[in-house]
UniProtKB/TrEMBL annotation:
Domain Ribbon-helix-helix: 6-70
GO molecular function: DNA binding
Highest rank taxon of the organism: Bacteria
Keyword tags: DNA-binding
Organism: Meinhardsimonia xiamenensis
Pfam families to which the protein is assigned, alphabetical: RHH_4
Protein name: Predicted DNA-binding protein, contains Ribbon-helix-helix (RHH) domain
Length: 74
């Protein structure tokens, strides 16, 4: 497996622009999950943002969400 460097991704959460740094595999999986749920990545990111602990960064919360999604499927 090759090392993946995080890349900045732009999101809009509740009308405010923000960015997260995610590796391509996490971003791709996040987009796939949003599409499967019939949501935009912004809408799903807003859900994750609202549910996360304040001590957890948004990028970390997205990674943990993706991990949990695929663990639940196996």
């Amino acid at each position: 497996m090759t090392a993946a460097r995080p890349r900045k991704r732009s999101l809009t959460l509740r009308g405010h622009r923000t960015s997260v740094s995610l590796e391509d595999p996490f971003w791709d999986a996040f987009r796939e999950i949003a599409a499967a749920r019939g949501q935009s990545v912004n809408a799903l990111a807003a859900e994750i943002d609202a549910a996360r602990d304040l001590d957890t960064g948004l990028a970390t919360a997205i990674r943990l969400f993706v991990l949990a999604h695929y663990r639940e499927r196996s």
